[in-house]
Amino acid sequence: MGLQPLEFSDCYLDSPWFRERVRAHEVELERTNKFIKELIKDGKNLIAATKSLSAAQRKFAHSLRDFKFEFIGDAETDDERCIDASLREFSNFLKNLEEQREIMALSVTETLIKPLEKFRKEQLGAVKEEKKKFDKETEKNYSLIDKHLNLSAKKKDSHLQEADVQVEQNRQHFYELSLEYVCKLQEIQERKKFEFVEPMLSFFQGMFTFYHQGHELAKDFNHYKMELQINIQNTRNRFEGTRSEVEELMNKIRQNPKDHKRASQFTAEGYLYVQEKRPAPFGSSWVKHYCMYRKAAKKFNMIPFEHRSGGKLGDGEVFFLRECTKRHTDSIDRRFCFDVEVADRPGVALTMQAFSEEERKQWLEALGGKEALLHSFNRAIIPRPEGSAQLDKMGFTILKKCISAVETRGINDQGLYRVVGVSSKVQRLLSLLMDVKTCNELDLENSSEWEVKTITSALKQYLRSLPEPLMTYELHGDFIVPAKSGSPESRANAIHFLVHKLPEKNKEMLDILVKHLTNVSNHSKQNLMTVANLGVVFGPTLMRPQEETVAAIMDLKFQNIVVEILIENYEKIFRTLPDATPPESVSQSPPNAPPRQSKRQGQRTKRPVAVYNLCLQLEDGDSPNPSKEDTPTSSLDSLSSPSPTTATVQGLPGPDRNHLVADGDWASAVASQTRPPMVQWLNPQSPTALSCSPAATPPSPKLSPFLSCPPAAPADKPPESVTSRKARAVYPCEAEHSSELSFEIGAIFEDVQTSREPGWLEGTLNGKRGLIPQNYVKLL
């Protein structure tokens, strides 16, 4: 479990647990700050001390290996897992280069030191300043409340009213600052992954160029670099979508904080001042407690908590309520007070003070006092207002009309569905489409009045206007679960099963839409809308949680993955029936089985995805030419053709201007941007590109889990040979590549020989020859 999300609604409660979560985020950022500071120092050592280069690299590698990113929520995407694992991969590369010390000719300052210093100064530094403001306002706010609550009730009404207004204004200012600080804390936690890893990636590219002896290793790193660049870009894209949703939720809560309270197990909860009597002559004192009350059990919990002492949490007290009585100012020289009588201690009554008259009325209602409000502390899920869009005959007509027009007129338009239309035109078109009289008269296929981007925006707006998302509130959580873990096959099976649990109309409309999106992705070479990009666009459109919270928004990236799975597996999901029993959404490893050294954990079907800022030149004859049957349907039109020249793909229109590259057996295209490339990935003394023979596709156990091409065995270290013999499987194994064999325990392999892949054998099983993990079998 990573860091817990910070809910904006908790800013108004400011509970002890909210402060604990804020502190956990602050500690993690401080840890990151110290780590980056140390990393910058290590990087400067590489430049300043050539003779100590090897020692500096070891320290650098050690720092990378020991650091691990924390994440918000309960799971990470595959891209985030790859980013998290990237630091350990970088560490491994450094260790292999220690023996090949050479003078580093390229300056590390521009590629590593400055970006990290900029991130530390502008991002982490900004958070530190926000923290100072937050702590200062916390002190000021609760000091003013203390002072205000100590005002005598006998003062003039005008004086008391003026004091009330001043306190309320100060509280609102504090809440505003708290909201901004919480938003900034969570933004920097998400941002730091790609902001930190990108300079690291650039640093490694520049360094490998100068190691001629590590030419084969540099080729391997080039493959990993491209995979990681894709992971970073996908994470960046999801971050942008998540950030906009978080900001929208924050603005909603800022406008109506009471309408966005989270569901709670307590009837009432919040801060109260409790009078504590002391022996004479000390009198009594008022201590702030965080109080929680369950009406059904009449159980009252209160925990002393002082914000100004660094958030010190005291020992809690639990009792059962007998009755509650309002205190008037003629009996006590404090306002907003009420008495609580303890059931199990007859004659014992506690005097408590709320922050305001409104809060006192709320507590009286919850505790069964005489005065009550019409509203309750019970927090329910806020239903979304129903729109005019419905899953009826008219809805299907709208969908089919828009899809037909898009496929006729704009299937090759760049940025299809990502480039939005003018809002007024979109609303006018949607109103015409939703009117029975005008809908049949509209000819979107032949009319030049309506731009394609207006039609696509109207289609998305219709889907968002449905009273319930197309993939339903009920199944929302079920769809998210398989996207968080498991193998590609288990994910597809789980989504397949869930789609067929949808209501018939929902499934029918989803079928029509996903078939269209599959067609759009098949034209991604022209329209630049890959499966990943379509997932970003349609994830929030087809799926959304019933309750808007930060935790739900953090799952937005998994909604995108669900849509990607639908598009990639359209024929299977919508044209075949699922198994009668629910599939396992997470594939389990066999007990006691050794880890496969080349396991690609969580890697989905290969497809074109968004890439940017790459510079790669292909060597003549090295461009891959994958067979059609080995290529996913969604990628056929996106794979680069075999060409000896560099393939440059145009940028995607829109604010992000993301660049796309096809991901076949290995990526053969590059994307160029207006900003300078991170590093030229060519040996300065040799124009030969760092490329890999397409014939060597099986994964090598000694390589990164994402590398497709093994290094050639050194001439002076031939691989240990195994003469032709039989072997028996001691663990089950599922193939992850077309060149590997799947088998169960006890399977007998014929003609087993040493493979050129370190850690692998070659053998024949049931007439098929392929690769076998050496640690999964026993030679006979």
TrEMBL record:
Residues 580-606, 618-661, 687-723 are annotated as: Disordered. Keywords: Cell membrane, Coiled coil, Cytoplasm, Endosome, GTPase activation, Membrane, SH3 domain. Residues 722-780 form the SH3 domain. Gene3D superfamilies: Arfaptin homology (AH) domain/BAR domain (1.20.1270.60), Pleckstrin-homology domain (PH domain)/Phosphotyrosine-binding domain (PTB) (2.30.29.30), Rho GTPase activation protein (1.10.555.10), SH3 Domains (2.30.30.40). Residues 225-252 form a coiled coil. Pfam families: BAR_3 (PF16746), PH (PF00169), RhoGAP (PF00620), SH3_9 (PF14604). One of its GO terms (biological process) is negative regulation of apoptotic process. Residues 632-646 have a biased composition (Low complexity). Residues 597-606 have a biased composition (Basic residues). One of its GO terms (molecular function) is GTPase activator activity. Residues 389-574 form the Rho-GAP domain. GO terms for cellular component: cytosol; endosome membrane; perinuclear region of cytoplasm; plasma membrane. GTPase-activating protein that catalyzes the conversion of active GTP-bound Rho GTPases to their inactive GDP-bound form, thus suppressing various Rho GTPase-mediated cellular processes. Also converts Cdc42 to an inactive GDP-bound state. Essential for PTKB2 regulation of cytoskeletal organization via Rho family GTPases. Inhibits PAK2 proteolytic fragment PAK-2p34 kinase activity and changes its localization from the nucleus to the perinuclear region. Stabilizes PAK-2p34 thereby increasing stimulation of cell death. This is Rho GTPase-activating protein 10. It comes from Pipistrellus kuhlii (Kuhl's pipistrelle).
